[in-house]
Each structure stands twice: as structure tokens, then as C-alpha cells.
Amino acid sequence: MHIHQQFYGVTLTGATASLFTMKNDNGMTVSITDFGGTIVNLITPDRNGKMLDVVMGYDSLRDYETADGYLGALVGRVANRIAGGRFELDDEVYDKLYINDGENHLHGGKVSMSYVVWGVREFATDDNACRLVLTYHSPNGDEGYPGNLDVTVTYTLDNNNALSIRYEAVTDKATPLNLTNHAYFNLGGYASGSILGHELWVDAESFLVTDAALIPTGEVRPVDGTPMDFRTAKPIGRDFFADYAPLRLAGGYDHCFNFTNWKNTAGGDPILRAILRDPVSGRRMEVLTNQPSVQFYSANFLKNPLFPLKGGLQQRTQTAVCLETQNMSGSVRHQGNPDFTDCILRPGDAFDYTTVYRFSAD
Ligand code: GAL
Which secondary-structure segment (H or E) carries 147? Predict the structure, then answer.
């Protein structure tokens, strides 16, 4: 079990980025850069012990800095979209959020948390785990959001092949907050092609319906009897091409799935909420979290020809799965609606959520 730091590059604004590589006693290896707190590599064994990298990414810091897609990055202040880049909070209107997705605000804005070098509070190893503790200070007015916000993210790799991500934050003025990580997984190895054969189980009884711009309309729809039902594991491709408006509007899966009984479980112990499995390699990823929902995204926009992936691989849609555990992003515009999460962090509140990605093979 060890972690080491190496030089990763210098950003366009002159900041130095490092790459931290953790390796556990089974040989599982995770590399994370302090630029965006981005997971760059995640190497795990298949059922025969063959090690492959199962996350999409780029070959250089410059690509992470200039490309879109948020590959492997930490995302905030508010992951996903805020309609019109405006919201109201405590009788104040905030309407200067950066517009970067049609007419809407996406993933916290222009620089946000994904395109900046985070502080490194600590990187350390003990008998059972390696950890990397990253910090980010987002000043009052940052990307149009209120309050001085201090975020701490702790990545931990243990000998059970579990990578855990703990998100903590405090603010001095009420602000919406919804933090996640945007890793793109392909359990056959990042270069192995379509994920439509991956099997997925998600412990969600409902999902958020969106409009064509992928903005939640306010409707929370039961998954029962729809292609969105993953309560029994099934291949992602089984219903992918169904003539079902939410799938056709989004070009695939790109929806917030609300976990069963989320109102009573959010903030408690992380519980098993999703399992992704590649039947070819046998690799399996369990997702445990105490967040209330997950944005399941089948990489429908992963097609930018200008930014080849690691090793020169062309981007292709549906070659990765994102399971972005989070608050419901639509909550910012649906405050007070009991079907949505409370997404406001207030002074004195402790924002504290943990998501675990645990790997095995069968
Ligand atoms: C996802 C989002 C997608 C797309 C992607 C980034 O979280 O659901 O619609 O914006 O990020 O390309």
C-alpha cells in the first residue's frame, strides 16, 4: 500500500499540477491529479487477474484543461444544470451564473471546481489505506454563487479495492451545493468499446423527467414499467433504443435516478445503490453512497473529435458509464417541492457525503 506524488504539468495560468498515484496490496492503482481532483487512471483486475485501466481520460494536463466532458473530474458548486443560470434564495435573485450549455448553467460554470488546481492538505498511507485530501476555496460570487465556500474532498483507496470519495463543505452564506465526481467507467477497459452490454442494477424507484434541454420539469416518474427500471439488473442496451420519450430526448440514459427511501437514508451510512458489471471481463463495480440520487449518464455526448482520449482513442458515444451520485440538480429550481432534495447549504451546516466505488471480478 503506497501513494506517491509526481509532477503532472503546468496549467495555462501557470499553476503546477501534481499526479498522485495510490497502489494497494492487490495491485489496484488509482491516479488522481489535483487539477480538478480528476481521476486519471484506475487500474483493476478482471476475473483472470488481468489489469486494465477502466476510466476514460486524456493523455495530458492540457487536454484536461481545454476539453469538455468533465472526464474524471470533481464537479460543483452544482453538478448538472440550473435552468437559465438563475435561482432565488432567501428572497435574493442570483442571475449571473455562467451559461455554458445552451441557455443553461452546467456543472458549476466556466472554471468551477473542475478546471482549477486544488490545494493538497495531505497525502498519506497507513496499514489499510492510502488517502489524498484536497481542498478548494470558492470565494463569495465565484461563478455567480453566494458565500465563501470551503470544500474538502478525501479520496481513499483500501485493500478491499474500494475507492471512497468523501465530500465535505462549509459556507458563510447560504448557497446551493451539489458535489460529485464525473468518472467515465468502462469495465472492459477504457478502450474496449460499447457499454451497452454492461449490466446495471440501480436501487431507484423513480427518476426525474427532463425537457429537451435536459432540465428537470418537476415531474418525478416511477420507473415501474419503463426502460428506466434497473431494479433487476439488466444489460444497459436492452431497452436503450426503446421508443420512450425521455430516452429519445436525451439520446440515451442521462437522468437523475432517485434512490429508494432516499428521504430517510441521505446522510446516513453509505449503502449499496448500484452495481455495474461487465460480463466479458467479469469486472464488477459496486456503488455505495449516502447521497440521495445518481445521475446515470451513458456518455451520449462523448463524441468530440478534437479531443482524442488516452492513447489517441477517438471519442465515441456509449463507450462509458457515469454514475454520478449527487443531490437532485433540479432542486435549485424546485426548492420547497418535497419530491426534490434540499440542496441549500447554510452557515453552520456540515455538508458531508461519501460515495464508494468498490471493484471485484467474477
Ligand atoms: C453529465 C450530464 C450530461 C453532460 C455531461 C458532460 O453529468 O448529465 O448531460 O452534460 O455531464 O458532457
Answer: none
Q: What is the C-alpha to C-alpha distance for residues 140 and 142, in angstroms, rounded to an integer?
A: 6
- Tell me the three cell numbers of residue 77: 458548486
What kind and span of H or E run contains 199?
strand 199-202
Q: Are strands 119-125 and 105-106 parallel, antiparallel or unpaired?
A: unpaired
pTM above 0.90, yes or no: yes
- Separation in Å, CA 71 to CA 75, 80, 194, 207, 269: 10, 14, 17, 24, 27
Which among 56, 64, 70, 113 is the best mutation to test ligand 1's pocket, defined by most ligand atoms within 8 Å of the CB? Answer: 70
Phi, psi of 5 (to 5 degrees): -110, 140
Amino acid (1-letter code) at residue 80:
N
d(CA 158, CA 126): 10
Pocket test for ligand 1, best of 107, 115, 215, 298 (most atoms within 8 A of CB): 107
DSSP string, 208-251: EEE-TTS-EEEEEEE-TTSTT--SS-EETTTTTT-S-HHHHHHT
Alpha carbons 87 and 217: distance in angstroms, whole number: 15
**Nearest-angstrom CA–CA distance, 348 and 346:** 6
**What does the pLDDT look like over 288-334, one tens digit per residue?**
999 999 999 999 999 999 999 999 999 999 999 999 999 997 999 99
173, burial (CB in 10 Å: exposed 0-12, middle 13-18, buried 19+): middle
Question: Partners of 136 in the beta sheet?
Answer: 151
Please check whether residue 315 is in contact with residue 129, taking contact to mean a CB–CB distance below 8 angstroms.
Answer: no
Instruction: Identify which of 137, 154, 147 has the alpha carbon closest to the alpha carbon of residue 173.
Output: 147
